[in-house]
Specification:
Length: 255
């Protein structure tokens, strides 16, 4: 049995113009674990997450998920690079801050779009899977609703089900509750907790410290484009670094 981590990132760098946002990120994520990325606004958390499925193209560094890997520092002809990126993207499903559902499609049609149109899966089996996923996120019976007929929390749960419908090896969640009204946050966090308990590999950018404490096997604290501290959930209660301590006390005081 392989003991390699499912995800391996080495030397990840990214600048937007003069703004050096990622300054050499190394991380690993074991299969079946939950990793949370925390840190101040602008520290690069979202850019790390988006680099994992190449929604941002890193300037340098290697990203490997399972057996798909891209070395962004190495020149490759356009066709080879396209193929490498396609293979890497296929390993992950993304959940955005605002769910990005198709407004003119029903919940079920939203869930079938990726599996049927992109992955060319059989409609009947994809539909059966989609119904099971809706049940899992507590939305059985809402197949025919349109996004506008759902609450923000329900829409985000559809967003999670849609990511799972792609049968990814890892689910990437970018501040999945920060666009929600406070009373809707709990139902979405509960679904994510369930996924972690079921053994999904998760990487979550979040400001929800208590949630991170509950689910995280690994905590990565970013500051100014580097990982300033890493460890288990104890990082959230007993950080070694002063900047982690200051960040946590600010967030906990605000929440
Ligand atoms: N597409 C882009 N073009 C230019 N600058 C960008 C782009 N995306 C991000 N940045 C900049 O990169 C820096 C890091 O952004 P990022 O979104 O990764 O931080 P973050 O830690 O996720 O912050 P937040 O908690 O506020 O979402 C910020 O200075 C941001 O303005």
């Amino acid at each position: 049995m392989s003991t390699d981590p499912l995800i391996e990132v080495r030397g990840l760098r990214k600048a937007f113009g003069d703004n050096e946002v990622l300054r050499g990120i190394d991380l690993t994520v074991p299969e079946g674990s939950a990793t949370t990325l925390l840190g101040p606004s602008g520290s690069g958390k979202t850019t790390v997450l988006r680099s994992l499925n190449v929604l941002e193209t890193p300037d340098a560094g290697v990203v490997r998920i399972g057996d798909a890997s891209v070395d962004f520092g190495e020149r490759a002809d356009a066709r080879t690079r396209r193929e490498e990126v396609r293979a890497l993207r296929a390993r992950s499903g993304m959940v955005f801050q605002s769910h990005h559902l198709f407004p003119h499609k029903t919940v079920l049609q939203n869930l079938l779009e990726g599996p049927v149109q992109v992955q060319r899966r059989d409609v009947d089996s994809a539909t059966a899977d989609a119904r099971a996923l809706l049940e899992q996120v507590g939305l059985a019976g809402r197949e025919d609703a349109y996004p506008a007929q759902l609450s923000g929390g329900q829409q985000q749960r559809v967003g999670i089900a849609r990511a799972l419908a792609l049968k990814p090896q890892v689910v990437l969640l970018d501040e999945p509750t920060s666009a929600l009204d406070p009373e809707l946050v709990g139902e979405v966090l509960a679904v994510i907790r369930d996924l972690a308990a079921q053994g999904w590999t998760l990487v979550v950018v979040t400001h929800e410290i208590r949630f991170a404490r509950d689910v995280a096997d690994q905590v990565l604290f970013l500051d100014q484009g580097v990982i300033a501290e890493r460890g288990g959930p104890e990082v959230l209660t007993d950080p070694r670094e002063e900047r982690t301590r200051q960040f946590l006390s600010r967030v906990l005081a605000a929440g």
